[in-house]
Amino acid sequence: MTIETDQDDLATKRGEVTVIVYAPRTPESQTFTFQRNERVGDAARTAAAAFGYEGGNPSFATEKNVVLDRTKSLEAEHVHDHQSLNLVDVGGGV
Amino acid sequence: MTAVPIAVTRAVLADEASAVAAWVSRQQDWEAAIDLDALQLTARTTHPATGTPLRIEADLDGYPAIPPVWRFLDPATGQPLPYAFPQGGTIPGISGSIFHSNRVICAPWSRLAYAEHGGPHGDWGDLTNWKNAAPAYTKADTIADMLSQIALHLSASPGTHP
User: How far apart are CA A81 and CA A79, in angstroms?
Assistant: First the structure.
C-alpha cells in the first residue's frame, strides 16, 4: 500500500494520470497512463487504437455516461488517478 | 436478406457474445442475449428519464456483411410499437441524436436507416459499405459498440414518443 502510494505521488509529480479504460468490444479493461495535460480526444484516440478501433470519433465517458469534452485536457475534465472510463464514440446521429 | 453464409454470421456472433455480456455486466439496468439459432439479439432496459420499459431487438441475418435491423418493440408482446421509440436528446459534444424523428436509429450501423430499407439515407452507398459510410458520424462496428451507442444516446433522451 505504501509502495503504491509512493508510486502515485511520483506519477503526480511527473504530471501523469493512470486510468482504467473499458471498451464495448472487449471484455477486459486496459490500463493507460497519460499526461494530465493531454487532450481527452488524443488520449481516447490512443486508447481506441489499443483496443483495435479504426477511425471514428472516440472520447471517454464516466461510469454515469457523462461524456468528457474531447477538446479539453484530462486534468480540466477532472480525470483522477485510477478512475474507470468508458470508451465511447461521439460521432453523433445523422 | 443473407449477405454471408449463416454459419459465418453465427461464428462472428458467438465470438462477440462475450463482449456483449461484459458490456451488459457493466451497465446498471440492461440485459441482453444473442439467440444464435434465430440470429437475433434481444435487449431490455428502462428509459433513463421516464423509467418506461424498453425492448430492443436486432435482426442479425447477414451480419457483419450488412448492419443489423434495430427495432424498439412492445416489451410485453414483442410487437412493433411506434410509441416505444425514444425521442432524440442533446448530449454536449455530440452533434446529434441517433434517434430520428421518423422512428429509426439513424446511423450507418442501422439497416433501416438506408433508403433501400425505407430509411432516409440514399447517400450512403451499398449496405456492405456500412462501416465506412459516414465517417464523421456515429461509428459502431460490433454489436457491443452498437449497444453502447444506444445506451449513450438514451441517456440524453427526454422520453419516448407519444
Answer: 7
The complex's ipTM works out to 0.89
Contact call for B145 and A91, based on CB within 8 A = no
* Vertex A30: Cα angle to B135 and A19 (nearest 5): 95
Asked if residue B94 has pLDDT above 90, the reply is no
Please, which residues 47-76 of chain B have a Cβ atom closer than 8 Å to chain A? none
Q: Does A13 touch chain B (CB under 8 A)?
A: no
Q: Which residues of B touch A28 (CB under 8 A)?
A: 22
- Cα–Cα dist B60/B38, whole Å: 9
Q: Give the pLDDT confidence score for residue B64 in this predicted structure.
A: 97
Per the structure, the complete domain to which residue A81 belongs is given by 3-89
A42 touches chain B (CB under 8 A): no
State how many domains chain A has. Answer: 1
Mean pLDDT by 10 residues, chain A (94 residues): 61 86 97 98 98 94 90 96 96 83
> What is the distance between the alpha carbons of residues B63 and A49, in angstroms, rounded to a whole number?
23
CB-based contact, B87 to chain A, within 8 Å: no
pTM of this structure: 0.93
**Residue A94 maps to a domain:** no
Is residue B102 predicted with pLDDT exceeding 90?
no
A21 interface with B at CB cutoff 8 Å:
no
CA torsion B24-B29-B31-B32 (nearest 10°) is: -60
| Record: contact A94-B151, CB cut-off 8 A | no
CATH number of the domain encompassing residue A29: 3.10.20.90
